[in-house]
Amino acid sequence: MTANLSITSAASKNRNSAVPGPTFPAAHPGWRAALPALILTLLAIFVLYRETALGMASIWARSDTYAHGFVVPPITIWLIWRMRERIALLAPRHNYPALVLLAVAGFAWLLGEMATANVVPQFALIFTLVFAVVAVLGRSVARSMAFPLLFLFFAVPFGDFTQPKLMEWTAKFTVLGLRLSGIPVFSEGQNLVIPSGNWSVVEACSGVRYLIASLTVGTLFAYLTYHSLRRRLIFVGISILVPILANWGRAYMIVMLGHLSGNRLAVGVDHLIYGWLFFGVVIMAMFWIGARWREDAPPAVQTELLQQPGDSRPDSAVWLAAVAAVLVASIWPLAQWRVDHDVAPPVKQLAPLAPIPGWQSEPAGSIDWRPRFENYAASTQVTFEKDRQSAGLFLAYYRNQDQQHKMVSSTNVLVTNSDPVWAPVTHGTREIAFLQEAFTVRTAELRAITGERLLVWQWYWVNGRWTANDIIVKAYTVWSRLLGDGDDSAVVIIYTLLNRPGEAEALLENVSRAAVPAIEAVLRQTRDAR
């Protein structure tokens, strides 16, 4: 019995002296003030920039390309939530230098609003939110959740500028694939003609939806699956390349299905269904292959090392940083309100166009075409005739521009891809000389279903300055508004039937030189009449 008691006592002693389990330090006390300060700061910024935020949400709602924007903020919150235990151990420390970056972001937002360039204020809003986090919580905390904060930029509806080039690449690959398959093809721009019918590469065929969706999901997948920067960047690069190549294959496959089935398959709704099924299979295969090289999580960092001695005190200045961030962010909406307060009277009509030397005006033109520019304040369209040759002129005048009524916009084009009569063929630029200086205009060739062709030249006027570049138009507009001269602008489009290319170009050059002084006078008189 004595031996048994000895064994029992030893066992009890061993149990009592067992190594205790890991202990986790409590969250830093500074979060008691930092967290509510951050939440209130972000809410205040959303209120100040609510029009920009609502504008982004409206694009998510009406565009399938950017519908993923609705899930980006929840994913960001989830990413931060999953690392909450590690973040909570860090000491939130205000960072006043971040207020300078916040001010820069706000100024960029103001310039974007004045230029009515949607994407600039939207990116600036995200930058404002990120820099506000840095200002309130400090660089160490912001660095620990850098990816979730940067992932917010995927919420910005951005990427439409790639459509023309993606459409061009898709059309070229489809033509190449069809010819390698032994099918004769006549191609003109994005329009293809094969023995079984006609095909066109339109916006939905550009693949920009696939590209943006793949890049967004692929970036998130790379972050969650890999831990080395090299593998993450490689997979993000693959998520850009694969949807482009997959879209080329999708376009070729759809045309082949239509051709081989006598246009019974891959047309109408089937066209879209087959396309998304093909894209879904390719993307799933990409993720499946990428998962084979996944990296295990690195060894956990000892939690005792996350807090350094002396870091246990709360940051009493965090509320001051939060208030300063809100004050800096509020400057720019107030400045915009002040600029928008000086609204010029609306334009009722353009000043009368003076006669063009050597040309006779024709009220009813022989060219049945009108550019697809909308939401202008006033416009005019007239046809001129000389030696049995005709040329058309279209002017659209803009004043008090905003996001719904602006000259340079993705919806203001020469012809839409859904136009039942006209289709774009080529685009380019050409340098001409008028008003005693060299000037570059944008050129385009259009084709009608009747076989007629148009040669079109286009450029802009912004408060007395001429340019054909969309970005320079925005810069001129901002500069003019900052000087208090308003945003009066106009698009100038001249066109003629393209019977012989050389003759059509010479005709437009002659009519441009003759008409520009009269056009300049009309625009200046309209501006000065306010």
Kindly list the characteristics that best describe this protein.
about 525 residues; alpha+beta; eight-stranded antiparallel sheet; three-stranded antiparallel sheet; 16 helices; about 50% helix; about 15% strand; flat
How would you describe this protein?
- Mean pLDDT is 85; it is low at 1-24 and 301-310.
- The chain is α+β, with helices and mostly antiparallel strands.
- The protein has 16 helices and 11 strands.
- The strands form 2 sheets. Strands 4, 5, 6, 7, 8, 9, 10 and 11 form an 8-stranded antiparallel beta sheet that branches.
- The chain starts with a helix and ends with a helix.
Q: How would you sum up this structure in a few lines?
A:
The chain has 530 residues and is α+β, with helices and mostly antiparallel strands. The protein contains 16 helices and eleven strands. Strands 4, 5, 6, 7, 8, 9, 10 and 11 form an eight-stranded antiparallel beta sheet that branches. A three-stranded antiparallel beta sheet has the order 1-2-3, with no helix packed on it.
What is the CA-based Rg, rounded? 31 Å
Low-pLDDT sequence parts = 1-24, 301-310
Residue share in helix: 40-55%
| Beta fraction | 15-25%
Main sheet: strands, sense, barrel: 8 strands, antiparallel
Written as H for each helix and E for each strand, in order along the chain, the element string is HHHHHHHHHHEEEHHHHEEEEEEEHEH
* Structural shape: flat
- pLDDT average, as an integer? 85
Q: Pairing-aware structural class of the strands and helices?
A: alpha+beta
The helix count comes to 16
Number of domains: 3
Distance between the termini: 113 Å
In total, the number of strands is 11
